[in-house]
Amino acid sequence: MATKHIISIGDFDRKEIDHLLDHAAQIDKKKYDDNALRGKILAVLFFEPSTRTRMSFESAMARLGGTSLSVGSVEACSMAKGETLADTIRVVSGYADAIVIRHPKEGAARLAGEFATVPVINAGDGAGQHPSQTLLDLYTIRQTMPIDGIEIALIGDLRYGRTAHSLASALSLYNVRLHTISPKGLELPATLAASLAKKGMEIIEHDNIKDVIDSVDVLYVTRIQRERFPDSASYFNVASSYRITPEILTNAKKHLIVLHPLPRVDEIDARLDESPHARYFEQSRNGVPVRMAMLMQVLQ
Amino acid sequence: MMTESEENEGLLVRRIKNGTVIDHIDGGEALNVVKILGITGTTQEALSIATNVPSRNMGRKDIVKLTNRELSKEEVDRIALISPRATINIIRNFKVCEKKGVEIPIQIEGLVRCPNPGCISNTNEPIRSRFRVLPEGLHCCYCDWVITRDITGHII
Predict the structure, then answer these.
(1) Which of A23, A103, B57, B75 is 20 to 30 A distant from B68 in Cα terms?
(2) Which residues pair with A219 in a beta bridge?
């Protein structure tokens, strides 16, 4: 049987996504064997900084009775001596039962899957894929409402934001209307928009969040990175007009949920944290049951 | 009776005894066809190229003749990426023994460089570039980048 990898959300069909999220929901209700992965070892290969993804994978493995191995910092590993990723993966395959990898190059996880003899889970490859984030985003939406039939707004940097791309692709498997609000030059890439439209997704672009805030069920906020702008003044100018405040949500639907993959900088006003709309910390917490379901899928 | 290509090329390019004639190449693409086939100045085969030959059906076309080498299906199908109307004639003892069109391959390996500088296939990893051939263009199997135009400009 072929090794089971989780590289891209595009490798999943809707049935597989729903099955995994159902499993995560069972785990969330404490319906799981806390020794399910006893004796199994997860290699945590992170070639880029991470807090949430890395810790939640390690937490997920620990809650299932397994253990995690890591190399520490990039400087401390043999990649710093010029070893190829392919060789690192072949070697680490001999030490662990599964590998979770984050790497700055796009496609690195796909390559890892080709050389590994154990399952590989992609925890983010450059500006490419980050499937576990997408699955936990979908899971968080599903906790409040069925995904079918929702109106969702993506706001922020939709050009470079990998979480927005993956989420939009996954949502195209459902009956969803997508609204996009982004600064000029940071719109959803045309090729992605075309491929989503081909799958039957309705995509509506807006200049201002206020045009759409009263009709959406989910508001997905992404970070606008400072380095995308020529100077600080133009960054602050744009960033301030995309900031989500309690005032903006005055006429929002009662059940609207606000999500953010975190870390946030200034995109969401801290005053919103106590609002029932704010679900970003819960979303982050959901990383554990979703990643537990992913680990069980590849290791059992 | 002379074939259309023989009539058209006249004395430009001589008949070959054994080898491959690639006919009906889109006008001006012959050099790219040669590049795709990996034929360089150091290869041994005698190579004849006719470009912008008048053609009844195509207006103008290019022809490539390669002596003493019969191209494999995988090699000729790559040509379909830039010249889908090309035809391949395998010549043995001056006779056309096989005549076939080119089929657009499902996937191509090691032929095109991914234009995404952040793609893992542009590093020192021991892999060849790999693209799926889709209606919208070439889709990088590693980073999902899609090359929609100027495929020849990305040939390795």
Answers:
(1) B57
(2) A153, A258
